[in-house]
Design a protein that fits this description.
The structure holds two protein chains of two kinds.
Chain A lengths: L1 H22 L1 H27 L6 E11 L2 E9 L1 H24 L6 H19 L4 H19 L6 H32 L4 H11 L3 E4 L2 E4 H16 L8 H4 L5 H10 L4 H8 L1 H4 L3 H22 L5 H21 L3 H28 L17 H14 L3 E2 L4 E2 L1 H16 L2 H28 L9 H12 L31 H26 L3 H6 L7 H8 L3 H24 L3 H8 L1 H8 L4 H32 L1 H8 L4 H31 L1
Antiparallel strand pairs in A: 1-2, 3-4, 5-6
Helix pairs in contact in A: 1-2, 1-4, 2-3, 2-4, 3-4, 3-10, 3-15, 3-20, 4-5, 5-6, 5-10, 6-8, 8-11, 8-13, 10-15, 11-15, 13-14, 13-18, 14-15, 14-17, 14-18, 15-16, 15-17, 15-20, 16-18, 16-20, 17-18, 17-20, 17-22, 18-23, 24-25, 26-27
Chain B lengths: L5 H17 L3 H25 L10 E9 L2 E7 L1 H20 L8 H20 L3 H10 L1 H11 L4 H30 L4 H6 L4 H18 L8 H8 L2 H26 L1 H27 L4 H20 L4 H32 L10 H4 L1 H15 L5 H14 L3 H26 L6 H4 L6 H19 L2 H18 L19 H13 L2
Antiparallel strand pairs in B: 1-2
Classes of the chains: A mainly alpha, B mainly alpha.
Chain lengths: 679, 517
């Protein structure tokens, strides 16, 4: 069964991809989407069987991959609780995104290719989460990277999309350098890359030291940090995050599937999968906590000032991943996975909702040109509001009832506080980031759905109206069907947004159900101090004491996320509904800070200056001065000048070099043979 | 197949074809060349099928011995390493002939003869068991290559062949002198015997350096690599394919057949030199590849970077490194050959290698774009393709002896992604900039037949490399055993913490467990 779940998307991708135009749009869509829904339908029973405690972990072998001495990498599919959680996340979101794309990509000429990429991605992601050894995990890791590259650059005529695709791949490769080095080191230390064997042997290596780059370090710290660099790349953590916002160049369903719900959480999954290993190094865990908290804060600050609706959600994703990492860093792996689980639903929902808004607004992504859309696209509005309630963690702290994010995010914060030490610091950072989360999430909702329409100034809207008004173009992107030029331009510019087709709304509704109920339904299994032990069954390191302590934290700790959530909502309401001049006055007052945040702390500029430009400059230098100016000049060209003046030699050699060469060789051979015979 | 001289036959078939090609017209020459190379390919498959891969099999199989004069003999025989390289050769040859089908219009008979003669010599290099027979094949193999570049090459072919000639000559003279000394010392010209002969470690250094001079040029290693970009740029497409696909592998084959087993102590002593040069090469040539505006030059520089991974793996002195190096050689032979074919496809249409002249080819050449993407991704070392297996094993191997070398070598995966994707973007993505590039037709049936088989093997090698690793395993195992006493200790020495004395036992247990596989 697991084989079927994993391989169906691959088969579908191959059929749709190779068939492409010959196959046609509709068959390609039916095959890929059908395969995904079957995979999804097969995955849920596995998850439920683990949920009820009726299933045992197992490994389904496929065949040998790479064998070299004691190095043994098998293709095999591992199924345990952790995998089962990821299986439902990946297949559910993926199948819904496939369905959504029927509507969203309706007008695209290249649909078979799009759906093939989506299915290929799903296959790679499933290989990643079912990996039983580090190398297969790396296969999935790179496979999702490839799919991400292809999908970000799906509209390959756009230079910005191509640049973003390359950036995503190359920055991820920096992380992969760490991952590969981590695998090398792990194999050196444990003489195996099988994950269960490593985890079993890891505690014994605690406290040992190893040579690395000429220095001596704690063995487990080196290994964990190297592997974590890989996780930082894939999960866009501070320092290696720069690719994620740019990745929004891809079609919106891609952002929802890959850059929100699944691929970017692979790093969190990896840390949880290897949690017994990370538990052997407090230094590594401290680093994970620090990076997680720093990313959580950094991304949230940047998210508050972005104008592009997708970028706000992208930074939000980055920030939420930070939460997951510091949860892992303080030892609350169950909480990290729980947030991963709930986040997949509400973040995919927010992205798909944003896609629905963009669809309605004729590809306009700038929120400054939105406003007053709640009546025009009510279903999108209501589902996105549910998503926002979930991400901001709305719930009643003492009653313990709330939306999905309420359970998972509060669980993380409480566990961080309860863990003491660095965790308390992370708790404060997390609470502050929760304030920002609430602010930017409601800001998005208010700017998009409330206030007055500001559509008239949008070039995209103008374009839609213009196109429609002047020539009756049947293949025009479908927007603005009811637009009339004679409508007075009272901010709407005469444009009438329209609600998206059912193929797009259905996934929104399904995900909204997840955003509402996923926390309530599963919190005991994921983070309950007793339920968790029974549920996770050692598929990750579950600290029952910590989770118990997390439930016993002081009341103010439990109330603080609730309080900052309300505060964020209030500030957003004041700024964007009550006093709409506040943002402008804030920018006037704190221009420098605003520019700093708007420009994403200038990471891109810094990297461009430190890495990209020098790489090209040094490359040019090596080529012009190294190869041509030095090696050739003093090598072959210098030799020529030495023997015969100028470049006459080349002319002379042209006629004679072959014979000279053959002659030298023959004389040599003759001499050799003589020597050999007569000695 | 006992006693049947299949290796000689594999050399005789293209030899006969080469002679025949000289005396017939262009059309017949093409068909003769194609049939001869296909026949050799079939023989190659038979060779592989009949090769005994079991652990108990003799290391050298299909041996032939015919004394000519003195100690000089027609001695052939292969182990798994040679088998794989011969398989690569006979697989690429029909593709080369196919690639030249329309591109070569002048002196077709001679051209085909040169190619067939080169096939003879390449098989000879890998199959030779006599030191001087190897030398002849090794050096003579360059003559047809000179001709191919010099007669059918581009505008600047003279300078390119001059550089090629100069580098190679210096190396080969030193190697020949070393060979004569070795024969004098050991009293035999038989390579298998020499591989087990223990030369005095002090003299080994000099012998090693003499061989190194030749193999480093052939690899090519930095800083004697500058002939390669020029040779590739000037060579016709098929010439580039065979140059990158097989001729570059002769250097690696030389290291694995001569330097390592014959001079293990010297190899260990001078390994840091190889690591250093390889580390420089990976970073240096990758950065140079990044700024190239000529497609062939870019791929040529990337070849130097990939070959540096081979030398890193070879001088890791362990199983993973050696097997990895062989897999990189095979994978790179296929992938770089395919990339040169991809360049050739569009060169044939537009007659320029200038990257900036193309753009948006994914629009009018979708099939081409897909195949090119696959090969670009393979060159980048994506898991599931041939190159990943080799690069991963090589770097893992070298990690065990030097973490620095592994770290710098692994940066190649970042830089490789940068220059390959940047190339791909400029050629296949973006808007169509030039009307003539936009009007180019997609792959013809002939071109599909050239690229599709390579694509299939690239994926096969990536997903189930066992088919290729298994035949080489006994030979690599023997080599590893030969190197074991000389192999340098790594820099990762693990010291168990004082706090947990039980740890040591556990580590040994896992080690034992790993070995049991």
């Amino acid at each position: 069964m697991i084989q079927l779940i994993v391989l169906l998307p691959l088969i579908a991708a191959a059929i749709a991809g190779l068939g492409n135009k010959a196959l046609g749009k509709l068959p390609a869509k039916i095959i890929t989407t059908g395969a995904l829904f079957i995979s999804c339908a097969l995955s849920w029973p596995i998850f439920i069987s683990f949920l009820t405690g009726n299933a045992e972990p197992y490994v389904a072998p496929v065949f040998t991959w790479i064998q070299s001495g004691s190095f043994d990498a098998q293709w095999a599919l591992r199924v345990d609780t952790l995998t089962a959680v990821m299986l439902v996340v990946v297949t559910s979101v993926s199948s819904l995104v496939h369905l959504y794309s029927w509507g969203y990509m309706e007008e695209d000429q290249d649909q078979p290719r799009f759906f093939a990429y989506l299915s290929l991605f799903t296959f790679a992601m499933l290989m990643l989460v079912t990996a039983n050894n580090l190398l297969q995990m790396f296969f999935g890791w790179e496979g999702v990277g490839l799919a991400s590259y292809l999908l970000i650059g799906f509209w390959f005529r756009k230079p910005s999309a191509n640049a973003a695709a390359i950036k995503a791949f190359v920055v991820n490769r920096v992380g992969d350098l760490g991952f590969m080095m981590g695998i090398f080191g792990t194999y050196l230390v444990f003489n195996t890359i099988s994950i269960p064997e490593i985890l079993e042997a890891a505690p014994a290596m605690a406290g040992s030291t190893i040579g690395f780059l000429g220095y001596r370090f704690d063995t487990m710290t080196v290994l964990c940090l190297l592997l974590f660099v890989g996780a930082m790349g894939k999960s866009a953590q501070l320092g290696l995050h720069t690719w994620l916002p740019d990745a929004m160049e891809g079609p919106t369903p891609v952002s929802a599937l890959i850059h929100a719900a699944t691929m970017v959480t692979a790093g969190v999954f990896m840390v949880c999968r290897l949690s017994p290993m990370f538990e052997t190094s407090q230094t590594a865990l401290g680093f994970v906590t620090f990076i997680g908290a720093a990313t959580c804060l950094f991304a949230a600050t940047v998210g508050t000032v972005q104008n592009d609706i997708k970028r706000v959600i992208a930074y939000s994703t980055c920030s939420q991943l930070g939460y997951m990492f510091f949860a892992a860093g303080v030892g609350a792996y169950g909480a990290a996975m729980f947030h991963l689980f709930t986040h997949a639903f509400f973040k995919a929902l927010l992205f798909l909702g944003a896609g629905s808004v963009i669809h309605a607004m004729h590809h306009e992504q700038d929120m400054r040109y939105y406003g007053a859309l709640r009546k025009e696209i009510p279903i999108t509005f209501w589902t996105m509001t549910l998503g926002t309630l979930a991400i901001t963690g709305v719930g009643l702290p003492l009653a313990g009832i709330g939306f999905a994010g309420f359970y998972s995010k509060d669980g993380i914060l409480e566990a961080a506080y309860a863990s003491g030490g660095a965790g308390v610091g992370a708790f404060y950072v997390g609470v502050f980031a929760a304030l920002l989360t609430s602010f930017y999430s409601w800001r998005l909702v208010f700017l998009t759905f409330f206030g007055k329409p500001r559509w008239a100034a949008s070039e995209h809207i103008q374009h839609a109206l213009h196109d429609h008004g002047h020539h009756e173009h049947p293949a025009d992107e479908g927007a603005g069907r009811d637009a009339h030029h004679d409508t007075p331009a009272t901010g709407t510019g005469g444009y009438r947004p329209h609600e998206s087709p059912w193929a797009m709304l259905l996934p929104l509704v399904a995900l909204a159900l997840g955003a509402v109920f996923a926390g309530f339904a599963f919190h005991d299994q994921f983070i309950g101090s007793e339920g968790g032990v029974a549920f996770w069954k050692n598929s990750l390191f579950f600290d029952s004491h910590l989770m118990h302590a997390a439930h016993e934290v002081p009341t103010w700790v439990k109330f603080s996320p609730f309080a900052v959530m309300l505060a964020g909502l209030l500030i957003a309401w004041l700024s964007y509904i009550r006093h709409t001049d506040w943002p402008r006055r804030f920018v006037g007052q704190f221009g420098v800070l605003y520019q700093f945040l708007l420009n994403k702390w200038y990471f891109d500029e810094l990297y461009d200056l430190v890495f990209v430009k020098p790489a090209f400059a040094i490359g040019r230098f090596f080529w012009k001065f190294g190869d041509i100016g030095f090696i050739d000049r003093f090598g072959p060209n210098g030799f020529a000048a030495l023997v015969v003046q100028g470049n006459k030699i080349t002319r002379r050699l042209q006629s004679g070099y072959l014979y000279t060469y053959a002659l030298v060789m023959l004389i040599g051979l003759a001499a050799a043979a003589t020597w050999a015979m007569t000695r | 197949m006992d006693g049947f001289p299949i290796l000689s036959l594999m050399m005789a078939v293209p030899m006969a074809g080469a002679i025949a090609c000289l005396f017939v017209g262009a059309r017949q020459a093409r068909w003769i060349a194609l049939l001869a190379t296909l026949a050799d390919f079939v023989l190659g498959i038979l060779l592989w099928i009949n090769f005994d891969q079991s652990g108990s099999a003799p290391q050298w199989q299909f041996q032939e011995y015919l004394p000519i004069f003195g100690r000089f003999a027609w001695a052939l025989g292969i182990d798994g390493i040679a088998l794989m390289l011969i398989a690569l050769t006979v697989f690429l040859m029909p593709i080369c002939i196919g690639a030249s089908w329309q591109a070569i219009e002048k002196r077709v008979g001679e051209y085909m003869a040169a190619f067939l003669f080169m096939e003879v010599l390449m098989i000879g290099v890998f199959a030779a068991q006599d030191l001087f027979l190897f030398y002849i094949m090794f050096e003579a193999g360059l003559i047809p290559m000179y001709l191919i570049i010099g007669i059918w090459g581009g505008a600047d072919r003279i300078y390119a062949s001059y550089k090629f000639f100069l580098y190679t000559l210096l190396g080969s003279v030193l190697m020949l002198i070393a060979m004569m000394w070795m024969v004098h010392e050991a009293g035999t010209t038989q390579i298998p015997v020499l591989m087990a002969y223990n030369f005095d470690p002090h003299i080994q250094i000099w012998l090693w350096l003499a061989f190194f001079a030749s193999f480093a040029v052939k690899m090519p290693m930095w800083p004697v690599h500058t002939w390669l970009p020029d040779a590739h740029v000037q060579a016709p497409t098929a010439g580039s394919v065979i140059l990158a696909g097989v001729l570059l592998k002769m250097g690696g084959y030389g290291f694995i057949r001569f330097s390592l087993p014959m001079f293990p102590e010297a190899s260990a002593e001078l390994a840091p030199l190889i690591w250093g040069l390889s580390m420089v090469a990976v970073v240096y040539t990758s950065l140079v590849a990044l700024v190239q505006s000529d497609m062939k030059k870019l791929i040529a520089y990337s070849s130097v970077a990939h070959m540096a991974i081979v030398t890193l793996g070879l001088f890791a002195f362990n199983r993973a490194g050696l097997e990895g190096a062989m897999m990189v050689m095979l994978g790179h032979g296929l992938v770089s050959g395919a990339l040169f074919l991809c360049v050739g496809v569009i060169y044939d249409r537009l007659h320029t290698r200038e990257i900036a002249r193309y753009g948006g080819l994914a629009i009018n050449m979708p099939k081409y774009a897909v195949l090119f993407l696959l090969f670009a991704m393979a060159a980048v070392g994506l898991p599931g393709t041939s190159n990943f297996v080799g690069e991963f094993l090589s770097l893992m191997g070298v990690y065990q002896v030097s973490t620095w070398a592994a770290l710098v070598g692994t940066t190649g995966i970042i830089l490789g992604a940068a220059y390959m994707l940047y190339l791909y973007r400029r050629i296949c993505y973006g808007e169509q900039k030039n009307a003539d590039a936009a009007a180019m037709p997609d792959l013809s049936m002939r071109e599909m037949w050239l690229l599709a088989p390579i694509a299939a093997v690239v994926l096969w090698m990536g997903v189930y490399p066992e088919s290729f690793l298994a035949p080489m395993r006994p030979a690599i195992h023997a080599l590893e055993a030969r190197l074991a006493s000389a192999a340098p200790a790594g820099d990762s020495k693990i010291e168990m913490g004082a706090a947990i004395p039980a740890g040591d036992g556990a580590a040994h247990e896992t080690a034992a467990h790993g070995e049991a596989h």
